[in-house]
């Protein structure tokens, strides 16, 4: 069993260690990182998973969501999602995503993108972006660019570049625009 809770500042060092273990130093060179630099993850949509009790309690997973503009449509980018290697395939990542996607929908977000392996992310409703429909701020294998609508039809107006939101535009305002 494991517990999921909202990320807090004191979780930072353990999350960074998990991300280093999961992705190595090359994680900073990934195209998705361009959308995180100078951007702030949405605190209410950043989660950690723990296993154990008391002094035996260990961080075993982490997930963050970032505000982005998806081809002109306000939305979210999911990631990074990390789970300690020995617990992969045990439902930690899937449950972190289910919680995050449900909370994002409740907050008014309508569309989420990520870069990842379709066979894994299809389990929570992601599918491939049609070829040429969206572009990232750098090279990405088109088969790994995935999206999920939190509201039916939200993807219909998304065409073009995936970008960071305009500086100074709070995530709540982005969600409100997406809900309009």
Automatic annotation (TrEMBL):
Assigned keywords, A-Z: Membrane, Transferase, Transmembrane, Transmembrane helix
Protein name, UniProt field: GNAT family N-acetyltransferase
Keyword Transmembrane helix: yes
GO molecular function: acyltransferase activity, transferring groups other than amino-acyl groups
Coiled-coil intervals: none
Keyword Phosphoprotein: no
Entry's transmembrane regions: 65-87
A matching Pfam family: Acetyltransf_1
Organism: Parvibaculum sedimenti
């Amino acid at each position: 069993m494991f517990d999921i809770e909202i990320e807090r500042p004191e979780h930072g060092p353990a999350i960074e260690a998990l991300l280093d273990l999961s992705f190595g130093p090359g994680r900073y060179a990934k195209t998705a990182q361009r959308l995180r630099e100078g951007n702030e993850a949405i605190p209410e949509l950043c989660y950690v998973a723990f296993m154990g009790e008391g002094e035996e309690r260990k961080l075993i997973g982490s997930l963050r969501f970032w505000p982005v503009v998806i081809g002109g449509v306000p939305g979210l980018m999911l990631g990074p999602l990390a789970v300690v290697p020995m617990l992969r395939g045990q439902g930690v990542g899937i449950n972190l995503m289910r919680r995050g996607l449900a909370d994002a929908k409740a907050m008014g977000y309508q569309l989420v993108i990520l870069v990842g392996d379709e066979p894994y992310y299809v389990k929570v409703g992601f599918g491939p972006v049609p070829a040429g429909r969206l572009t990232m701020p750098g090279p990405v294998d088109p088969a790994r660019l995935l999206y999920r609508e939190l509201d039916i039809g939200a993807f219909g107006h998304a065409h073009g570049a995936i970008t960071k939101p305009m500086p100074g535009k709070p995530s709540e305002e982005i969600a409100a625009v997406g809900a309009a």
